[in-house]
Structure formats: structure tokens, C-alpha cells
Amino acid sequence: MQLSRFNALLDLELRASDPLGMIAAAYLAYFIRFDTFRMSSLYAVALVILVLGSLTASVAFRAYDRPLGERSFSQYCCIAASWATGFAVIMALGYLLKVSDLYSRAWVSLTFFLGLAFMAVVRQVNVLTLWYLRRRGVGVHRCLLVGATDAGLHMTAQTLADPGLGMKITAYVKTSCDTGVPGNVPLAGSLQNLDQILDRGEWDQVLIALPVSAHRAISYVLDRMDERVTAVKFVPDMLGRQLINHRMEDCGGVPVVTLRESPLHGHAWVLKAIEDRVIAGLILVMISPVMIALAIGVKLSSPGPILYRQHRVGLDGKEFEMLKFRSMPVDVEKGGAVQWGNATKKTTTRFGKFIRGTSLDELPQFLNVLRGDMSIVGPRPERPMFVEKFKGEIAGYMHKHLVKAGITGWAQINGWRGDTDLVKRIEYDLYYINNWSLLFDLRIIFLTIFKGFVHTEAPAAAPALPSLAQAAPGTSNPSEESA
């Protein structure tokens, strides 16, 4: 009970600190603008509507669903989106009621940005305080591990290495499904005497780390737990599997675990579509003189069409026609002479070599973005024959088709493009899909300006990522055709 009260107080404190931060931001902005803290009734009414609108939106954005400390940046993004929604409501009301001219624009702007800053500071202080307390044993869940599968062993190692996670596995129960022995964790007994172990009442949680196939053992443990009030969590043995956008949900009263799904569904799909069209349209307007100059250069360099149309595989594994400025003579691949990799050895025109080396040949793909075939940011698409080749050789290769193919991507700005390790490239693509956000997209677009155009050799040491893709046994490190 003491632990549940501790968690409840943390949640209550967080829910209270956000509206207090909103109010403090509004009053500080009022003081900066009018040199007084005595807010007029006109502004006070707007503040009340603003706070209520933001808190209502926070329910829709599920800003408080995750425990404090778990993916704190995602939590902040949710409350920031709620704050922005509150401002959208107040501005819409001001427009409809024709009272927007009565409010200072400086106050509105200052309140918005100060509110974002206050909520960021408050949440960071809360997270640091929580981790400080957990590292000293306050608010830590005492856990009993039933089974020592690979996932159970991994969880044990993580909780021992990082007390800030708020979990401490103090004992484990041996089963016939175990693949090892948890280090530095005492043995409580075997599955056969689970009742006697649980009767000791030393644990806040029971973690069931058993294979899904061991349904009898799982049912046995759950039957034992039916007579007790201890929290129970299931730790599926999914190590080594690519889990994309995984989560638990309820389907007609039946718990369903999503193991792999595109992150772009619902409102996320709409936001991504708006981002693509707006940015692609703006870029096409800005680069239109460059596009015209490149088109003239292609036409003068060799006879043939200006654009090269090539079938690639995109979202949901469906083919589309990708556009590029032609950099090779016409019919250079006639007779099925399609080359894999070795982009620098392919037959190109003199002008084509220049536009390929600087990625200027890819500019027409912004038209693909406007047509909805591609996205600005996403995994690079590949030709159908190579997709067929590598989907059976590289684990997780087809998972990159959970989102639209992109002009640039997380792999490309980290140097994995051209004649580089395709296995590593897929790893970066899956990392992008599993961590997608609009801010992540904008970061990639920004970095592309500085290091995403010129082809370079594979990086000597790439940033470490969680292992998301591995080559199948006996598979070499193939290189994707230069896109």
C-alpha cells in the first residue's frame, strides 16, 4: 500500500504541476507585457478557457497514461500538443466572437512559449527527482521472477544495472523452461512449491517470464495468483524479434498484443501526409529554377527523355513509378542488364555522373511525394527483383514497407547509402519506423541539408542502435543499388 500511495502522489503532483505551470506562464507574461500581476477579468476569462481546453485535450492525447519517467520526451510532446490545442481553441473563440483585437499579441505569444518552458522544466525536475529516489530504494517495486527465459534474464540484467527503472528482482522461481540462471538473484524455489513462496508476501509484483508455448505453466501460475492481490505482469520471450510499434490493447474485452504495426495510422497518418505535401510543395517552388537548369543539362548531355521512370516497391509492398533525372544513356539496361551495387562503375553521361554524385538526380521525387507515392522521410525504395532477393536473406527487410518510401532517411544521413552494408541500413530504417515522430522527420530533413546529398564511403563507426535487423546465416553484406 505504501508503494501505491507513493506512485499516486507522484501522478497527482504531475497532474497538478502542469496547470500551475500554465497559470504561472500566463501571469509572468502579463507582468512582462503590462508591468503588473493584477490580471484584468478579460484576460482571466481567457486564461480559464485556455487551461480547461488544454487539460481536456490532455485526456485525448493521453498525456498522463504512461508512468512518470517512462519515455519522458513522449510525455512532454503530448502535454505540449495539449497546450497548443488549448491555444487553438482560444484563438478560434476570439475569431468567432470578434474579440481577438482586445488581447495583446505579445501576451498570447509569451504565454505560449513560457508555458512550454515551464512544463518542460517541471517534468524534468520530476523525472530527476523520481530517479534520485529510486536509486536510493524509494518507490521501487520488489519483483518475483517466475521463469528465466532469455527475456527474463535480460530484464534481470537491466534492473540490476539501472535501479532508476523502479524495479528490483529480489528472487526467482525455477521452471523447466529456463535457459539460464539470473545473476546475483537468489533462488526462491521451484514452480511446484509456488504457493509456499507466494505466501511469504515479500513481493509487489510477479513477473511471468515463460514462453508462450508453455501455456500450462502460465495457467498454473495465474491460478495461484487468483487467490492473491499481488500485481502480475507477463514478460513474453520476444528477444531477437523485430517489434514495430508494439502495444497492448483491448478488443471486445479480449486483451490483444500488437507485435508489429505501422506507427502511421489515425491522426499520425494525417499529420505525416500534411507534412509531406506542405514541405514538398514549398521545396518544389524554391528549386524550380534548379529543376529547369538540370532538365536542360540532361537534354543536352545525351538524346532521350529528361526523366527516368523506374518501378520501385513502397508502402505495403506495392510497386510505384519513381521519377529521377536521367543520368545514363538510353537503353543502358536493355536486355535485363540490371546491376546491383557498384554505382560508380555504371555507365553514365558526363552530366549524369555529376547529378548522381550530388543526388540532384533525385529532385523529381518531390513530385512522387505530391502524388502520394513517396514521403520526404522514410526508407529508400528498392526495385522489385532485389526486394524478392533480399526479403528471404535479411531478417526484417520487408518491415521497412510498413511506411512510405522516402527521398531521405535516418540511414542515409548516417552514411548508409550507395555501396554500403544493406543489413546495417535496414537496422537504421527499422529504428526510424519504431521511433517515428514529426520532430524526428524534421531533424532528418534538417540534417539532410548538410550531409545527405553527396555520396560518401560507409562510415567507419556508426552510432550504436538497438539490434533490429540481422543477416540470415550464410548471407554476405550486400549493397543496395545507389538510389
Q: Which structural class matches the secondary elements?
A: alpha/beta
What does the average pLDDT come to? 81
Report the major sheet.
5 strands, parallel
Number of domains: 3
Shape type: flat
Low-confidence stretches: 456-483
Q: How many helical stretches?
A: 14
Number of strands: 11
Strand order of the largest sheet: 3-2-1-4-5
What's the N-to-C terminus distance?
59 Å
Rg: 28 Å
Strand proportion: 5-15%
Order of helices and strands: HHHHEHEEHEHEEEHEEHHEHEHHH
Question: What is the helix content?
Answer: 40-55%
Layout of helices and strands:
Elements: H1 2-34, H2 41-60, H3 72-96, H4 105-135, E1 141-146, H5 150-161, E2 167-174, E3 187-190, H6 194-198, E4 205-208, H7 215-225, E5 231-234, E6 247-251, E7 254-258, H8 267-301, E8 307-313, E9 319-325, H9 350-357, H10 365-371, E10 375-377, H11 384-390, E11 406-408, H12 410-413, H13 422-434, H14 438-451
Parallel strand pairs: 1-2, 1-4, 2-3, 4-5, 10-11
Antiparallel strand pairs: 6-7, 8-9
